[in-house]
Amino acid sequence: MNNFLRFRITFQTIKDHQRVTIIITLLFIAMAAMYCGMYPAFKDVLADMAESGGMEAFSSFFGPAAADMATYVGFVNLELYQIFWMVILGILIGFVSASLISKEIEGKTIDLLMSNPISRKQIVFEKFLGLIPLVLIINFATMLTVVGVTVAIGEDLSFYNLFLTHLASIAYFLAIISIGLLISVIIDEKMKASIFFIVILMGMYVLESISKIIPDYESIGYVSITHYFVSYDTLKLGKFDIAGALVLICITVVCLIISMIYFEHRDIEVT
Question: How many domains does the chain divide into?
Answer without folding.
Answer: 1
